[in-house]
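Appendix B, record 7
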Amino acid sequence: MHHFHRFGKIKRLKDRCKHLKPLVMDLLKQFSFSFILLTIFIPCSFSQSENIWVTFEEAPSLTYSSDGKIECQNTSLQALIDQHHITGIEQALSNSRKPNLQKVYEVTCDCDVLELMLDINSKNLGLSNPEIGPNYRLLYDPNDYFATFSSDYALDLIKAKGAWDYSHGDSNVIIGICDANYHLANIDLIGKWLSFSSPNNNPNYEHGTAVALTAAGNTDNGVGKSAIGFNCRLNLRSISYNNVLDLSYAGSRAINVSWYSSCFYSAYVQEVVDEVYQNGGIIVAAAGNGTTCAGPSNLVFPASCDHVISVTSIGPSDNHEQIISDTASTHQHNTAVDICAPGYDIATGSSWTFGPVITSGTSFAAPYVTGTIGLMLAIRPCLTFEDVENLLKESATNIDLLNPNYAGLLGAGRLDAHRTLKFTYMGICNLQEPSVFSHGDPHSFANLENEPSSDLSADIKISYNPINGNPIMSWMEKREFELIVSNIHGQVIHKEHVDENVQFSEIELASKGMYFVQFISNGQQMFSDKILKVY
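Structure tokens (predicted):
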């Protein structure tokens, strides 16, 4: 019997660096910039980025002269532009649907960004909350050699074949990949992607392709290699938080982020993550590659944000040290890590320019988790972020005894996709918010060791009313059960008791879109599926 509880993610650097920024501003008034760099920024580095994010209370009215200089009707803002050699002011999060994030702009300059931030804070310009802007960097350690797959341990280690006994995924489940660039003509990507951000001028095609193929490349097609996400499909975007938002609103429930943007907490970034979370999205992020943010115990963002599943690496023996007994050969381990997946000496398929490659990085550990989530959503589309996080953690294999130097810093342990999918299949979605699991609740993942007493999948038919587009469900077997319909956020919008004399139900839905239906009898799920309001 498995009892589910929440594993609270504790984000430590948020407390360390969130409050450090005001201190830095005070110090800037008293000490030289070089002194601050030596005493403050070494343990908690503010990126060398040449951009900041800042809130404009009113949208700026800007034009560009023939030589590219920004011209502004607001004389005070123009003085700031001239003084700090500001070269660009662009809306940072246009895909957000939150009014306050619509006001966030990315300001680039040929200047000292800390002095620019200090100037903004000291003047009444209608600008507020300046932060160091994101500096997007990939999380992989490419080897300089190419190889055939003499060793491809990853799928066996996470027990992928056992997971596929429960689900091969679903082409209606769309995994979002936010990464560098992609070889769209790769044989294992053809037919798998639904949308792609264009233009994309990032020259690194290999990284994004490898991540996409690991999560959900073509599988069972006789070429390349298998992907944990099997039949799930892909939306592909270039790297930016704005594109993470775009993926969420384009229908990607699971979104893979195999990069980092900073080594410190950002209120803007957390708010972006929260918007995806509130939209029903599940962000999976690479935890860092050991040297990231100046050390393997340091937190990396966005992986260390709340409402993000942070993934670090293990090798074929569940070893967190890539070279066993070499403590300098680990990827990130800290209190923000949620789970581990294969990330050392990974076979990345035929994704790289010159053929197959063995490489390392939490970049490639993360998509094993993201693809597994795709399988979970294929059989239980009503799962919330909390549902998914709890299932992954409760089914993981604890590896602390094998890695005593890192006990408590590797999250719940190593991903066990087979056990995760078993728990997912045998459970019942919690359709109430928030998702807190407790044994005995008929809408929790209780009694997971017991198979459902009955499965009506083959007996139930779904059709649509040609007049109003509402789904009509019919069944042959006479049963008494609860019919529950939820929206994509997991909120119950329709619930009715069906007695033995009723063998069909037309479900009245207010607006078109995708919904999820369940038949529940005596606390056990007999049937679940996606339904549509077609017009």
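Remarks on this record: The longest helix spans residues 362-379. Confidence is low (pLDDT under 50) at residues 1-48, 143-148, 350-354, 431-454.
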